[in-house]
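Budget justification, computational time. The allocation requested in the original proposal was used primarily to generate structure tokens for proteins on the priority list. As evidence of use, we reproduce two of the resulting records. The first is shown immediately below.
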Amino acid sequence: MKSIIISLNLLFFCACSFNANSGTIQKAEKSYLKFIGNSDGVSILIDDDNSFKLADTTKNKGMVYQLRHGKHKLKVFRNNNLISERIIFLEDNGTMEIMIQWIK
């Protein structure tokens, strides 16, 4: 009887300490757009509600902007003139390069 109680207690303590530090790590769902090319006077409109102007990419070797993954509608304007419009699909934890034309 004593051996059964000791065995159960030993089993209980071993079970409590086993896998105490296990868990699942899930990466954040982030995707990135990298704009390269001539950014003079360029502004970007994403999904018809998120608009921003690009910094000077010639000095920074491309600017990276974070988005959620999935389907997005992208419009590129230079001096308020539409120069590119496309639908893009971003994968999770991926980076897509968007080339901006070198128009002078």
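The second record produced under the same allocation is shown here.
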Amino acid sequence: MPTLYVVATPLGNLRDLSPRARDTLAAVDVVAAEDTRHSQRLLDAFGIRAKRLLAAHQHNEQQAAGIIIECLAEGRHVALITDAGTPAISDPGARLVARVREAGYTVSPVPGACAAVAALSVAGFKEGGFRFIGFLPPKTQSRRAALMLLSGERDALVFYEAPHRVEACVADMMEAFGGGREILIARELTKLHEEIAAMPLMDAGAWFAADANRVRGEFVLIVRGADVPDGVDADALRILGLLLDELPLKTAVRLAAEITGAPRKGLYAHALKQQQ
């Protein structure tokens, strides 16, 4: 049965490419890659000669999906890879995979490196689960609004961020979540200059300022989940956060309690903690 294989590739350290991934890339008829020049270097490093290398990136994903479906219809096997990590996880691939599945073809994962999971494994945030957010909106106001909506989440929050926005993003996190919330900053995972540090959000700005190199590379940011007061759920805290952005503390707490039915005492305690 012609199959689309979704193949994870190394984040940086080439030895993280699994034997199964190597065998798959060597065996398929087509390798669809986010950046064909980048992926050619990966294939060359393992002596893999792709029969056909096809560009499949965010700007041509629908067109590439059509070509891949044609290849599958001809009985060919296809592997999908991105520049690093697992395709379709804040990378191109999700729309392409959906199209292939809708066309009735098998899509099979070849698991491996994923930056979000790698960072989670060293975070030590054992309480609850996690919620993968990926990249926040690049514009300041939209980013702050998105963070306010997440401020009451009890699960750890996992973000990706670009080097030119990471300091502003972390500063906005402190405003939305409070300076006492813990953040894990994972920079350049598996690469030569890998750096992983955990600290309260209030200390993150100084951490970046201490070394200019700390704003370079690719980032995974994990923020510990909120401590939710008894009887106050995440939806109530989201509403409270929105009201606090526009109204005085006491008014916001009163309205949030009336709207959600959550106990005023718990909402007030959370609001105080956020302001501090």
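A brief technical remark on that second record: The chain has a mean pLDDT of 93.
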